[in-house]
Structures are given as C-alpha cells and as structure tokens.
C-alpha cells in the first residue's frame, strides 16, 4: 500500500504547474526572432553544407522565408529555407502536444492515487466499525 506523507489540495499543484509552464512558454515567445537552427552555406563550389543545431531550441517565428522570383539562382536555397522553417514549426507543435499529453498523464495518475487512498481509508474505517460491532456483541 502506498501512502502519501503529505496531502495536497485538489488542483492547487496542477494550477501551479500549469502557470509555471505558461510562464516558460510566454518567456520563450520573446526569443521567437532567434532561429533555433543555424544554417551555414559554404562557397558555391563546394557541395557540402554545414548545419549546426543548437539545443534547446527557442520558439520559431511565425513568418516563413520570403520567396523571390523564379528566375533567381538562389531559388532552391530559398525553398529549402522555407521547408526548414515549416518543419521547425511542426516540431514545436509536436513538442507542445507532448507536453499537454504528459500533463494529462500526470494528472490522471494523481487522481488515481487520490481515489486509491480514499478507498483505502474507507475500507480501514469499515474494518474498524465491524471490529467494534463484533467486540460489542461478543
């Protein structure tokens, strides 16, 4: 049997966690202009490109890279940059969904634990009542 040493008020812990996560999220919005992945291109003669990922990542700006006219020689680079930004936005969305699911699982576990402790308390009380009735009759 698992018994918690300290009883928490329903919702107060989760409210604090929610506010903390909201604060972190809002604090990250200020860094939206910083690109979480720095892409460096080498000279046009070189076929290699270096991509340096920085971790942890900051939120991504909502604006995609501008598209230039189709006859521009840098068109493939612009398309790659645009695709990179879209993928970064999708990663951030997925991370947000993971955090939401993680919160729901933790919340479900806490509710389950509270219900288990309440049921255990009731069963112990019922056992004590039956014992007192048996000793009173006998």
The helicity comes to 55-70%
- Uncertain residue ranges: 1-6, 40-56
Q: Characterize the main sheet.
A: 2 strands, antiparallel
Described by the principal axes of the CA atoms, the overall outline is rod-shaped
Kindly report the spatial arrangement of strands forming the biggest sheet. 1-2
Over all CA atoms, what is the radius of gyration? 28 Å
Task: Give the end-to-end Cα distance, rounded to a whole number of Å.
Answer: 31 Å
The mean pLDDT is: 73
Beta-strand proportion: 5-15%
How many discrete domains? 1
Number of strands: 2
What letter string, H or E per element, gives the SSE order? Answer: HEEH
| Helix count from the secondary structure assignment | 2
Structural class designation: mainly alpha
Protein architecture, described:
One of its GO terms (biological process) is protein trimerization. This is YbgF trimerisation domain-containing protein. Pfam families: TolA_bind_tri. It comes from marine metagenome. The protein has one domain. Strands 1-2 form a two-stranded antiparallel ribbon. It is built from 2 helices and 2 strands, in the order αββα. Strand 1 and strand 2 form a beta hairpin. It is rod-shaped and about 100 Å long. 59% of the residues lie in helices and 7% in strands.
Write the layout of secondary structure elements.
Elements lengths: L11 H18 L7 E5 L7 E5 L21 H63 L1
Antiparallel strand pairs: 1-2
Organism: marine metagenome
InterPro entries: YbgF_tri
Pfam family, one: TolA_bind_tri
